[in-house]
Amino acid sequence: MKPLFYISLGYLTLTLLAGCNHSNQLYQANPLYTFGTIVEISIWGVPEPTARQAVNAITADFETMHRTWHAWQPSALTELNQALAKGEARVITDRSLLSLIEQSKFFAKRSEGLFNPAIGQLIALWGFQSDEVPAGPPPTSEELAKWVRLAPSMEDVVIDQNRVSSSNPAVQLDFGAIAKGYAVDLAIDKLRQLGIQNAIVNAGGNLKAMGKKGDRPWSIGIRHPSGQGVLAHVEVSGEESVITSGCYERFREYQGVRYCHILDPRTGKPVTDLVSVTVIACSGSLADAASTALMVAGKQEWQRVANQMGVKLVMVVDDTRKVSMTPEMEERVVLIW
Ligand code: ADP
Ligand code: MG
Description:
337 residues; alpha+beta; T-fold; nine-stranded antiparallel sheet; three-stranded antiparallel sheet; 9 helices; 17 strands; globular; binds adenosine-5'-diphosphate
């Protein structure tokens, strides 16, 4: 009897110890709605109270970013846009907003202007700024041609220390194509500062991971361009961002024609020949800017523009549902569709 008692006591002690030690557990926060999307955070390897505190800190950061960077509701960005439209300069005190502008200038140049966050007026012309996209006919060719002639671009935007101005009053900034990628970069940085080494932050299909899930890499599902189910899986370990741009979530429809929310700044029209692009890169803002730029580049040009932007891991789905990818992506991704 005695040995059995000792064994049971030993087992009980181990169980209790395991109960106190949460470091081998996954903490999955309740999805939160911010940034116009659902944000999911998973953390591995720290006690639950630490994970919970970290999630609270990130939630507060996301809400601040949303308020500061919003292109259409009163924010530091809408104040800047009003100044630029009047030909005035503005001093930007928010470091993250200034960084978004700097990064956007850089990525716009490397994408030959296909990624162009100066196209706020065009977005408004199409009605993609509002939660409820319009049901009526799309803008006329004349309206689009008029906007194309104004040609606002990030090259028009001048940054002098923290003073921002524009040489073209048609510039209206909207960081919808890069903000979520940059937000997940900042969220992962914050988690690291809080002593967390293994986590995923997913802002509506724009995600960044760091570390591992225990002794295994994180496994990420890439959404099917139909918006239903998963197209592929990819394993991620270390620090990497996986970002998908597509037409499945946001579009408007008129007389049976679907108009994608990603617009070609050269024509003012929505993209047509790719339906989704996934980019994996270390930087979330690069992956986000590139995924939008490659949607615009289309079937013929996506590989050239990807090279120019310095992204090697790319998968695209075209309008016939054909999947193509770079050789580097082929080695990483498992198609399940
Ligand atoms: P998602 O919003 O699905 O993450 P994107 O990262 O591609 O997709 O961002 C699309 C948003 O970016 C659009 O809703 C619009 O606000 C803006 N946008 C559309 N076309 C462009 C473009 N060519 N360059 C920069 N921003 C764009
Ligand atoms: Mg993008």
